[in-house]
Amino acid sequence: QITLRESGLTLVKPTETLTLTCTFSGFSLTTRSVGVSWIRQPPGEALEWLAVIYWDNDARYRSSLTSRLTITKDTSKNQVVLTMTNMDPVDTATYYCAYTEAAGYGDKVRFDYWGQGTLVAVSS
Amino acid sequence: QSALTQPRSVSGSPGQSVTISCTGTTSDVGGYNYVSWYQQHPGKAPKLIISDVNKRPSGVPDRFSGSKSGNTASLTISGLQAEDEADYYCCSYVGRYSYVFGTGTKVAVL
User: Fold this and answer.
1) What does chain A look like in DSSP terms, one character per residue?
2) Do B98 and A49 touch (CB under 8 A)?
3) Which of chain A's residues have a Cβ under 8 Å away from the Cβ of B39?
4) How confident is the model over B27-42, as pLDDT tens digits?
């Protein structure tokens, strides 16, 4: 059974750095094809894909946020960490992590499993 | 990468059918058969209901179906039920291991 859970500070100030952790179970990020993505959703708005990291440490980012995002993994802890620098009130959103597989390596090129999400507010 | 375009809302009476469109470009929807659809009820995480354009995961009712023509994908809900009232999002693979979501559609059951 695959589960994911997001954790981190729920209130950050403008210009600060956000650090979110996704702790998962039921799969390993050392298995070929496997990846974990971060997706966010501002209140009342649409989902927005942010970043992904794969078993081979290949990391990809939303093009408009490349300079602010870093995604890393700790396979020994079954965790994926997302950092976002220079936070702004427009970054207020629910942040989700989700299981995925790499195109060309796996057949789950989508988001089968999601965490429950964590609401992050950016305010002074 | 711009968001895929979906209608803001669609509605129908119980038992009717509704179709939600998801329009992209040859760089996303038109270029890959990796279009997925997600259902989201208020305060809940999204749930996968269609993968690979038209595949239904186990447990998803067969009243949900997907299709694609050119740069536009579609989700059809046949035999609309009260519990189908939710937000729906399409998502497409865009190459280089990255993704883009749609603008979202609110389905109302009248």
Assistant:
1) --EEEEEE-SEE-TTPPEEEEEEEESS-TTSTTEEEEEEEE-TTS--EEEEEEETT--EEE-GGGTTTEEEEEETTTTEEEEEE-S--GGG-EEEEEEEEE-BTTBS--S---B---EEEEE--
2) yes
3) none
4) 999 999 999 999 999 9
Residue entry with tokens 């949900």? B64
Residue B42 is given by DSSP the state T
CA–CA separation, B78 and B76 (whole Å):
6
In degrees and rounded to multiples of 5, residue A11 shows phi and psi of -135, 125
Which two three-digit tokens encode residue A74? 């700790």
> If you search the block for the tokens 């536009």, which residue do you land on?
B72
Find chain A residues with C-beta within 8 A of B47's C-beta: 114
Q: What are phi and psi of B5, to 5 degrees?
A: -95, 125
Average pLDDT, chain B: 96
Quickly state the pLDDT bin for A107 (edges 50, 70, 90): confident
How many other CB atoms sit within 10 Å of the CB of residue A45? 11
Nearest chain A Cα distance for residue B16, angstroms:
26
Residues 6+ apart with CB under 8 A from A47: A39, A40, A41, B38, B46, B89, B91, B101, B104
Tell me which residue in A49, A63, A111 faces B48 most closely, judged by beta carbons: A111
